[in-house]
Design goal:
The chain is of the alpha+beta class. It has a single domain, classed as Beta-Lactamase (2-Layer Sandwich), CATH 3.30.450. The chain has helices at residues 6-72, 76-79, 83-94, 129-137, 179-184, 275-310, 315-321, and strands spanning 100-107, 112-115, 141-147, 154-163, 168-177, 194-200, 205-209, 239-244, 250-259, 265-274. It has a five-stranded antiparallel sheet, with helices on both faces. A five-stranded antiparallel sheet has the order 7-6-10-9-8. Strand 3 (141-147) and strand 4 (154-163) form a beta hairpin. The model is unreliable at 212-218 and 317-322 (pLDDT under 50).
Length: 322
């Protein structure tokens, strides 16, 4: 007769369990690969979301600036351009508008008439894009990314023509500090391993974060990004691209255009992450799943051995005794 000893039944049961695990291992390998891809896509979507939020914040700043200039233009001190009262008024207003670096009134000759900051000598602003567009179109206009002549900060100017009953008499302008985008990106704190850059349409660097540690790139502000750094992308939605960052490290970037409410693109931003750190985070999540499944498999094997030892393996012996 065939040996049906307890030891034999235990061995057979364990072999049966292992055989049952073979297709499960194939399914697990496929699911693990798909899970890894999903986690990688989730990390890329996180980058895209950050870039999209900052691009939306930029449009909101421009929209707020338009409403701000329209409200400010209603004050007689601004329209009449009485130098002392106009300057004092703009100085007080600027204290409550941290997103602006300067607020100015520019005469039709292109020279600064009054402003929150006043230089010792006459300052010509008639060549600024926002002034040229506002006076030629006679409506609110947004200029180009540039470095402020009074502050040296990276800014984008906007202007609103002020009528005097006989046409445009002067132009009310404000400069949005582009550093505000860095302070407001991701709740104001840039996670470790990320880089944040704002560039104009010609790939000139306007803002760079972080500016400490291994990413000290303050000297890059105002410089032209290299050919391997991501350029402005077509369309309005953020895109994932790869490239070499300003510090020479290859990164994965989420690139988004910075457009005004009218749809004009003044520049673009790039959120960067190294592929190594990104894949490390993905591996940590996947490995955690593997550990849970390994523990589950060991528990199942232990249950199979206990089932074979305390129940199935004893059944023949109990039957012989009866």
């Amino acid at each position: 007769m065939e040996d049906v000893s307890p030891r034999n039944l235990q061995v057979r049961l364990l072999i049966l369990v292992f055989i049952a695990f073979i297709p499960a291992l194939g399914i697990f390998w496929y699911a693990n690969r798909e899970f890894r891809n999903l986690q990688l896509e989730a990390k890329e979507q996180e980058l895209i979301q950050r870039a999209g939020e900052v691009a939306t914040e930029y449009r909101r700043l421009i929209g707020e600036g338009k409403a701000f200039l329209a409200a400010l233009s209603e004050f007689d001190e601004i329209r009449s351009v009485r130098f002392s009262s106009c300057t004092d008024h703009l100085v007080r207003v600027l204290r409550h508008a941290e997103q602006f670096s300067t607020i100015t009134v520019i005469g039709m000759d292109g020279y600064l008439a009054c402003g929150s900051l006043t230089p010792e000598n006459a300052l010509y602003l008639g060549d600024r894009a926002y002034f040229v567009r506002a006076t030629s179109r006679d409506l609110f206009s947004v200029g180009e990314f540039t470095l402020g002549r009074l502050t040296g900060k990276p800014v984008v100017g906007m202007a609103l023509p002020l009528g005097n009953g006989e046409g445009t008499g002067s132009v009310l302008a404000a400069s949005v500090d582009l550093n505000v985008l860095a302070r407001r990106s991701g709740g104001g704190t840039l996670p470790e391993g990320y880089t944040f850059s704002v560039l104009d349409r010609n790939r000139r660097v306007m803002v760079r974060r972080p500016r400490t540690g291994n990413f000290t790139l303050a000297d890059s502000v105002g410089a032209i990004a290299g050919a391997t750094f991501p350029g402005p992308q077509e369309g309005s939605a953020p895109l994932i691209v790869t490239g070499t960052d300003l510090d020479g490290i290859e990164r994965l970037f989420a690139v988004a255009p910075l457009r005004s409410p009218a749809g004009n693109m003044e520049g673009y931003l790039a959120f960067g992450r190294t592929k190594v750190t990104l894949m490390q985070e993905v591996d940590e999540i996947v490995n955690l799943q593997l550990r849970f499944l390994a523990v589950g498999g060991m528990v199942l094997l232990a249950l199979a051995w206990a089932l074979g030892h305390f129940w199935l393996a004893r059944c023949p012996t109990d039957q012989e005794e009866s």
